[in-house]
Write a structure and sequence with these properties.
By secondary structure, this protein is mostly helical. It is built from 16 helices and no strands.
């Protein structure tokens, strides 16, 4: 047994004592760095791509969402409390970000250079702040990379997870604990096949009338991503028995995860990042949990309970597009400037928007249990 790691069954692991803030921050940073390099320099060097692929930000978010949101539902006193807590977590920061995006469009003078109407602008703002963030009107296609905040597609998927969690638990509530978990496992396997065959499904959809739109719409539903979420649900429901084992073997899990990614990418040419194959997601999830519950005073000492990952995730693309639109000189300056701007926006968002609203949550859940973030 490793020094400092509780033995399975000793009960020394507490659900709310974890390194999730740090893990989410690393995942959000991967997305921000990747997008900054792609949109401000044109491409990612191969050696750096290998580093980034070790931290597939969106799959990590979706897995952790399943782990934490299922816990939130199980500990909420009623559906209203659950929905209120999820809304407080998501929407204040999102709506503020949408407002900042509109402000950027105004202050840069972009809106003066294109034809637009108040109705189309209002519709876009409503979509950005609700559940159809992936819709982008034509008049905004000339700003930056052509989409003001393309990262928000995952917010739409996240909201679908919130809703489907209610349906899942209510549909299976008559089952005993073991029966519930078996049913969820069966659904997880089925959903993983949807992800595995996603390219084929999209190809079929593209041959239908309005097929391109249908294929794009399918990609932003919860369906191709749901198995990642459900793996998190299963891990949460058995966390007391699996987490100590994961932590005990965390170095072996990290080595297995890195080796698996390397073999798949180098020898088999399997795409990684958001396209990480279903059979690697359980290894990723186990590795994430092993690190999340490993003893780490460094995380608490540096972050001190501040979770700026959500802000970094939602703000980085408007700022990247701002830097690109104003023609900031060269990737050597523009990329650090964009990342610094996104980091500053994330800190301000956490301090003045997200944290004050999170304090209004009513829940029996331990503090710090938040999703996507």
């Amino acid at each position: 047994m490793m020094l400092g790691v509780p033995k399975p069954g000793e009960g020394e692991f507490r659900f709310s004592v974890n390194n999730f803030d740090a893990i989410r921050l690393v995942a959000a940073a991967e997305v921000a760095v990747r997008h900054s390099i792609v949109h401000l320099s044109g491409g990612i060097p191969l050696w750096f791509e290998w580093i980034l692929m070790m931290v597939p930000g969106v799959p990590i978010f979706f897995f952790l969402s399943g782990f934490l949101i299922s816990r939130s539902w199980e500990r909420a006193s009623n559906t209203r409390e659950y929905c209120r807590n999820r809304a407080l977590r998501l929407f204040p920061g999102l709506w503020t970000c949408v407002g900042v995006s509109v402000l950027i469009l105004v202050l840069t003078g972009y809106l003066q250079s294109v034809a637009w109407t108040w109705s189309s602008m209002l519709l876009w703002v409503i979509c950005q702040g609700s559940i159809v963030q992936f819709w982008n009107p034509e008049f905004l296609s000339g700003f930056g990379c052509g989409v003001v905040n393309g990262s928000l597609w995952s917010i739409s998927v996240e909201i679908q997870f919130y809703v489907v969690t209610i349906i899942l638990y209510r549909a299976l509530r008559a089952l005993p604990r073991s029966g519930f978990d078996i049913a969820v496992l069966v659904i997880t396997i089925g959903m993983s096949l949807l992800n595995f065959w996603r390219v084929d499904i999209e190809a079929v959809l593209e041959n239908l009338p309005h097929g391109v739109i249908l294929a794009k719409a399918y990609d932003v539903t919860f369906l191709p991503w749901y198995f990642m979420f459900l793996l998190g649900v299963l891990a949460q429901r058995r966390w007391e028995s699996i987490v100590p084992t994961f932590v005990q073997h965390r170095f072996a899990l990290v080595a297995l995860y890195v080796a698996s990614l390397g073999i798949d990418a180098h020898f088999w040419g399997v795409p990684l990042g958001n396209q990480i194959p279903p059979y690697l997601v359980p290894v990723m999830g186990a590795t994430v949990l092993s690190l999340a519950y490993s003893p780490s005073e460094l995380t608490r000492r540096i972050l001190r309970g501040n979770d700026v990952s959500y802000g970094l995730y939602i703000y980085h693309m408007p700022i990247v597009n701002l830097v690109r639109y104003i023609g900031f000189a060269g990737p050597g300056i523009s990329i650090p400037a964009a990342l610094a701007g996104a980091a500053l926006a994330a800190v301000v968002s956490w301090k003045f928007v997200e944290r004050p609203f999170l304090r209004r949550k009513r829940s029996a859940s331990p503090a710090g249990m938040v999703s996507l973030g």
